[in-house]
Amino acid sequence: MRLSQYFLPLLKETPKEAQIASHRLMLRAGMIQQSSAGIYSWLPLGKKVLDKIAQLVREEQNRAGAIEIMMPTIQPAELWQESGRYDDYGAEMLRIKDRHERDMLYGPTNEEQVTDIFRSHVRSYKALPLNLYHIQWKFRDEVRPRFGIMRGREFLMKDAYSFDIDSDAARQSYNRMFVSYLKTFARMGLTAIPMEADTGPIGGDMSHEFIILAETGESGVYFHKDWLNTDLVTSVDYSEDLQPVVDRFTSLYARADEKHDPANCPVDEGDLMSLRGIEIGHIFYFGEKYSEPMGATVAGPDGSNIPVHMGSYGIGVSRLVGGIIEASHDDKGIIWPRAVAPFDVAVVNLKPDDDGCTACAEDLYARLGAAGGDPLMDDRDERPGAKLASIDLIGIPWQIVIGPRGMANGVVEVKNRATGEAVEVSPESALSMVMDGAA
Ligand code: 5CA
Questions:
Q1: Which residue's alpha carbon is at the smallest distance from atom 16 of ligand 1?
Q2: Is the CB of 314 under 6 A from ligand 1?
């Protein structure tokens, strides 16, 4: 993409309404624009990151055996009356009437909708286990939407729903999602800590929240330092028994501030860490809570009809955009982990009116694209300082900076955004550094 032809509305001033770094940086980097309280448009740079995160989540869900579907955003009230949640859900639910005066709602979650799909088609335990997921917009009329897309009213969620014949089988489905979440967040360069959690309006008796570490997080968390070793999970294979794996993780200490009792903490002081965190995922096992009232039953091995055991598994896809920024930025701007970066590399031509610079920039840009990269070419007619500042702000993992001084010596500058390291090398070496290097 050529910046001169892109739509990247950067803000010079720091927006006053933004209280936290990710909100400020998303506005300044031209990623989002507020439409009304807690509701945002996603501009090209933001949309690109959102799609990358959704795709990575999708790959890991598929790998764990979940199957993608797409349910609507607007649901009929009847389904929620069947489960009993229509009245319980309260003011957070956006209720709508259609032209025939039928009660509809903008889905805050999809347990009822997916249970309706299941009961319409599945009759036998032989079709189980089954896990269906979608990546879809939700609406919750939060009392205090804040921090930009971190606590929005409209937000993008990945929600998966598992169906099993009994609680033991459901536990295995839960474990698969548990492990897949750790793998998903590790791929994004995040440390995620699962913590036992309350189940709130979703219900059930087993639940974990996944918290990513970031200084600006809403909640404090105490944890064993081994949580910082994400290699623990990348090697786990879905064909093994996951219970010992999950037990190993859940036995590692992790508690929310208010549940941490220093006097009775089993972890040595030297191994205990305390940081702040952001909830980016939440998983639930709730047995027959929806299948029972909604009649989602299957014929078991002995022919009798049994309500299925269900769980649901959410990831805040849009919240992750902000969460990753909170976990990875500096005073110059965003630092994208390569796996979710909107572009792999920025080719910054400091002097577009210099033929040598432009020939070199064009050549590198074409070859980066041909080699399978996704380069952003800064060919704007701007001061060099302003260009470098805006490329730092939008956080592209690698920068190749081309100027007349370097050109005279046949070199360009390659800068790694995360480490700040910059080296002068030939255009040839720049190409291989960027394409081979993991930022
Ligand atoms: N049905 C279950 C699991 S699919 C469910 O809705 N769980 S949840 O309420 O915990 O939401 C799942 C995830 O969505 C949360 O962990 C959080 O990352 C994200 N989320 C929830 N509310 C918001 C919000 N207002 N803005 C942005 N993300 C949100």
A1: 281
A2: yes
278 within ligand 1 shell (Cβ under 6 A): no
DSSP E strand stretches across 49-177: 67-68, 74-76, 94-97, 103-106, 130-139, 154-164
Cβ–ligand 1 contact at 289 (below 6 Å): no
The residue whose CA has the least distance to atom 19 of ligand 1 is 316
- CATH numbers and ranges of domains, the chain: 3-334 (3.30.930.10), 343-436 (3.40.50.800)
> Are the CB atoms for 348 and 387 separated by under 8 Å?
yes
How far, in Å, from the CA of 245 to the mean position of ligand 1?
25
Whether the CB of 282 sits within 6 Å of ligand 1: yes
Q: In what order do the strands lie in the sheet with 422-425?
A: 375-378, 345-349, 398-402, 412-416, 422-425
The predicted-structure confidence for 21-51, as pLDDT tens digits, reads as follows 999 999 999 999 999 999 999 999 999 999 9
pLDDT in tens, 127-176: 999 999 999 999 999 999 999 999 999 999 999 999 999 999 999 999 99
